[in-house]
Amino acid sequence: MRERRGPLLLLTQGDPAGIGPELTLKTWMQRLDLGVPPFAVLTDPAYLTRIARSFGWNVPIKIVTPAEAADAYNAALPVIPLQRRVRAEPGKPVAANAASVIESIEMAVQLVTAGEADGLVTNPISKHILYEAGFKHPGHTEFLAALSGPVNGKPAHPVMMLWSEDLAVVPVTVHIPLSAVAPSLTTELIVRTGRIVARELTLRFGLPHPRLAIAGLNPHAGENGAMGSEDDAVIAPAVAQLRDAGIQAFGPLPADTMFHARARSRYDAALAMYHDQALIPIKTLAFDDAVNITLGLPFVRTSPDHGTAFDIAGKGVARPDSLIAAMKLAARLTRHPGP
To answer: Is there a smaller number of Cβ atoms within 10 Å at the N or the C end of the chain?
Structure first.
């Protein structure tokens, strides 16, 4: 096997009918001006060439192995080809393309865990399209965890973090209905999530003493039980356990006062109790350049913080800001050894 020269990130295909191919091309075209780290994309090179030509973009594409990608990067967009051909039309998702989406993810995990790349950046997928094709995992993150194997001898427990220069947030419960949040929230889940966040802020981000702000679930963090019992019965004991473990955690805090500038200066990451409690503030502060990071895996994985955007695919208007930010953050995180 040829030895790899220089750092390398892998970029998965994502849903080929979404904006992923367009963002991939735009990111490579801006690589020199914006300092985008070397990457190779796992996709059908013929399809990517067709998308580039549809926009009138002169993007040379070179089929490579991981060992050849870094050398090719400045002169051409390196592509590690899939076995499956992609026949897609922008904005028209079909279940027939699910196999290539899954192949791209599986190949990327295999290569990064074998040491043939430093980290993984994933283009957006459409879960409902994968479900139509028989996909059995709840989502992208859970699939990556299933493929990755154990971490420190235990099954991977993936934790979703949304990161920007101004704010990092972690939803303790993620893609579940609001009515299911309180029944799903346990002290054990909060503690496990907080431990993973603290560990990776230290190992990946280089923060020796990370500070975690823990949001309450109810208005006013329950107002001493007047507005719900979960804050006192479930969240406060979790904060105490995290502090007993030597982690600088504090809360539960009223969520409506956690995200102004002065409050954000007190912590390195905020743990929110449900999806929108975390994502509304970060998308307000950093809509175009927030990055989705999966903590708790044995490799670095980042993703742009947006979806497939089928409604604008093929129109040339999609902005690559979040994908570029995901690339830069992945390169930064791979400089640290991780778990």
So the answer is: N
Extents of the domains making up the chain: 1-153+291-339, 166-285
Superfamily in which the 1-153+291-339 domain is placed by CATH: Isopropylmalate Dehydrogenase (3.40.718.10)
| Mean pLDDT to the nearest integer, 298-302 | 93
The tens digit of pLDDT for each residue in 14-70 reads: 999 999 999 999 999 999 888 889 999 999 999 999 999 999 999 999 999 999 999
Fold designation for 166-285: Isopropylmalate Dehydrogenase (3.40.718)
Domains 1-153+291-339 and 166-285 share a fold: yes
Of 100, 144, 103, residue with least CA distance to 120:
144
Cβ atoms of residues 169 and 161 within 8 Å: yes
**CA–CA distance, 73 with 61 (Å, rounded to integer):** 10
Query: Among candidates 34, 64, 59, which has minimal Cα distance to 47?
Result: 59
Provide the phi-psi class of 16: left if phi over 0, else alpha when psi is between -120 and 50, else beta. alpha
Burial 73-107 (b: 16+ CB within 10 A, else e): beeebbbbbbebebebebbebeeebbebbbbbbeb
**pLDDT, tens digit, for every residue of 70-107?**
999 999 999 999 999 998 999 998 889 999 999 999 99
CB 277 within 8 A of CB 251: no
Q: pTM of the predicted model, to two decimals?
A: 0.89
